[in-house]
């Protein structure tokens, strides 16, 4: 299994991200973790609409899990291959980069 690393600029974006207009999201204190699933779980705990945003980005980047499978994967109920973990990392970066 490969470790997931994030560029310092992305980690800074996570901490400084402003909420989407009208969404009332607050991501202060969230930082990219070694396992993107943990970062995704933290985001979803802050605001449940992150689940949909992350899944759409995951799907757009080549992920093949349906929303229910994606949610189960994030919470460790099913396993995907290492490439899906990489796609999830891209999805997190994309969602956080576009407030």
Name a few traits of the molecule.
99 residues; mainly alpha; 0% strand; globular; disordered N terminus
Description:
This protein is an all-alpha fold and 99 residues long. It has one domain (8-97). The radius of gyration is 12 Å and the shape is globular. It starts with 7 loop residues before the first helix and ends with a helix. It is 57% helix and 0% strand. It has helices at residues 8-16, 36-46, 49-60, 67-74, 82-97.
Task: Report Rg.
Answer: 12 Å
Q: What is the overall pLDDT average? A: 77
- Assembly type of the chains comes to single chain
Shape: globular
Estimate percent helicity.
55-70%
Which segments are poorly predicted (pLDDT under 50) over 5 or more consecutive residues? 1-26
List the helices and strands and how they pair.
Elements: H1 8-16, H2 36-46, H3 49-60, H4 67-74, H5 82-97
Helix pairs in contact: 2-3, 2-5, 3-5
Structure in a nutshell:
By secondary structure, this protein is an all-alpha fold.
